Amino acid sequence: MLNDFTEIRNSLREKITNTPVCDQTHVVYRDDYALAINCFLEYLSKFDTIESIYQIGSIGVPGLSDIDLLIIFKDIHRDISYRYSIKTLPQNMQYIFSHDGWFIDRQIFMDIPYWFPYFDLNHIYGTKMEPDESQKEDKNLKCILLSNYLITKVPSDFIMYSYLEGYFYERIMLNMINSLQHSISLWADINPHGYRIEYHDFVEEYRNFRSQWFELQESTKLELLREYAIEAILLGYRLIEDMGDYLNSHWFENLEFLPEMSFKTKNKTLIFKREFNLDETLFNLVKSDGQPLMQYPLSFGCFLHQYTSSDGIIGHHISRCLSGNENFTYKPPSNIQSIFNCHVNSIEYYSWFSSKKFRTPANSYNTYWAPHRLSKMHRFIDRVNNRVLRFIKQKAYLP
Question: What is the CATH number of the domain that holds 62?
Fold first, then answer.
C-alpha cells in the first residue's frame, strides 16, 4: 500500500462507495467452464472459416475468471463477427466467457508478441501454430507493450468501471485488478531496480484475497474490493510515473524544452506534461466531476508520437488526435526503432484485417481507439450493414 495520499484515498473512497454495484459474481464450478468451452467449440466447428483457436491463461478462480480466446480465421473474405460471438450461447455460458475473443488471422497470430503481452498460450482447436517468439523477452518490446497499456487501460479502466460509468462493476473490477499483476510483471522485467516493494505486496495480498472471494462475507468482501480498487488506481499512476522516468532516460532525452502535448478523441482527453507531478495529477483526478483529464509525463507523448510516421489507420488516427508535436524530431535509438517498427506493422495489419473482414475496429487497447475507417460516413454505412446482417442471421437461425 502507498503510504501517503490520504486525502486522495478518501475522495476516491467517497466516489466508489456511493456508486451502485452491478455485474455481480456468482458461483460457477470448474466443470462448467469445460462444458462452456466444449459447447462453444462445437458451435464454431460448423464454420469452415476458422483455422485455429487458442486460449490465453487458465481458470484461476471459477466464477470470477473469464475465458480469453484467440480465434484465427483462414482468410479475409467479408464476414460478420456476430456469428462467432459468445452472444450465440445461453446466458449462463455468456457469463463464464464474459467477452468475445480476439478475431485475427494467421499473420496476426504469428506476430502476437509484438502487440499482446500474452502468457500461458494453449491450443484448443484446429491447426496448431507457433508464434514468432524470437523477440518476446526483449526489454524494449516489453517497454512498448507496457506503455501501450498504461495509455489505454491502466489505470483509466479502473476509474471507469469503479465509478465513472455510474456503476461499480464487481466482476470486471475483480479481473481488471488481477490483470494489474501482468503490468507490474512487465515493469519488473524492464527495470528490476525500479521494482517497488508496494508492487510486490499488492500483488501477493490481492491474489490471496481474490482466491477467497466466495468464502468471505458479502459486506466484508465488497468493502475490501473497493479498497483494492483505490489502491489499483494509485498504483497504476505510480507505474505511469516510473515508466515515464524510464522513457525519459532510456528512449528520449532533454525534454525540458519541448511543449506539452495532448491527445483528444470524442470521448477521451490525454495530457502529456513536461513537469509531471503525481500529487497534482491525482488531485485533479478526484476533483473532476465528469470525464477526468488523464495526465502523463511528456515522455509518453513522445512515445505516442512515434506512431505518426505510420501510413496506416492507426498512424493517421494518432496524427489527427495528437497536438503539440509540430516540428517534433525526437526518435529513440535505432535498436529500439527497429522493434518499434515491428510493433507498429503488427497492429496496423490487425486494424486493417478487422476493417476488411468485419467492417469493425480492432481491439481498442491495442490500437489507441482507432476507428476501422477514417471517414465517418463509411463507418456509419458499415455499422448499418453489420446490424442488418446480424438481424438477418438471427431471424433466419443460420449457423
Answer: 3.30.460
Distances (CA, A) of 272 to 98, 138, 154, 199, 215: 33, 26, 16, 24, 43
What's the pLDDT tens digit per position in 315-332? 999 999 999 877 777 788
State the Cα–Cα distance between residues 181 and 185, nearest whole angstrom: 6
The one-character DSSP state at 256 is T
Report the alpha-carbon distance of residue 327 to residue 296 in Å, rounded: 21
CA dist 228 and 180 (Å) reads 11
Question: CA of 86: how far to CAs of 94, 147, 254, in Å?
Answer: 6, 30, 49
pTM, two decimals, is: 0.93
The C-alpha cell that represents 384 in the structure block: 448499418
Q: What is the pLDDT of residues 82-112, one digit of tens each?
A: 999 999 999 999 999 999 999 999 999 999 9
Is there a contact between 146 and 201 (Cβ–Cβ < 8 Å)? no
For strand 121-126 and strand 50-56, is the pairing parallel, antiparallel, or unpaired? antiparallel
- What cell numbers appear for 109 in the block? 497470430
Type of residue at 193: H
What is the residue range of 50's domain? 30-135
**For the chain, how long is the longest CA-to-CA vector?**
62
Instruction: For residue 82, tell me if it sits in a domain.
Output: yes
My answer on whether omega of the bond before 155 falls inside 30° of 0, hence cis, is yes
